[in-house]
Amino acid sequence: MRTILIAMAVAGAFAGGVVQAQDPLKGKCLGCHDMEKKKVGPSFKDAAAKNKGNKDAAGALVAKMKDGKGHPKVAGSDAELKAAADAALSAK
Ligand code: HEC
Predict the structure, then answer these.
(1) For the CA atoms of the chain, what is the radius of gyration?
(2) Which of 72, 77, 85, 91 could pair covalently with 58 via S-S, beta carbons 3.0-4.6 A apart?
(3) Domain residue ranges in the chain
(4) Mutational pocket test of ligand 1: of 25, 28, 32, the residue with most ligand atoms within 8 Å of the beta carbon
(5) What's the predicted TM-score (pTM) here?
(6) Residues 27-44: pLDDT tens digits?
(7) Are the beta carbons of 20 and 14 closer than 8 angstroms?
């Protein structure tokens, strides 16, 4: 019984970590964006389609989010913003 409880706790912690790593958009971006629909900003599907083939799109977007020019300013580390931009621009 004890072993099972520990195994469940470990599995739960692991699953939680994976969810967080897979969803860098949550919290920072999804207040203004939706994957499918236009909200305050364009849907990530549209943005991904528009920037398809542009390898610099995510980097350029991170720069805009840091400056607050061309995109509302978003707080976060470079790595967080880059992960979010990559995820947004690979939306399908
Ligand atoms: C305060 C609201 C707000 C937040 C928060 C926000 N965005 Fe945006 N976003 C916008 C608006 C408004 C635009 C349209 C800007 C324009 O075209 O002038 C936009 C545009 C975009 C685009 C389209 C760029 C293009 O080239 O067409 C992408 C991709 C994007 N945002 C990603 C993100 C990501 C990733 C995050 C989280 C790190 C984020 N946004 C957070 C409001 C927001």
Answers:
(1) 17
(2) 85
(3) 25-89
(4) 32
(5) 0.83
(6) 999 999 999 999 999 999
(7) no
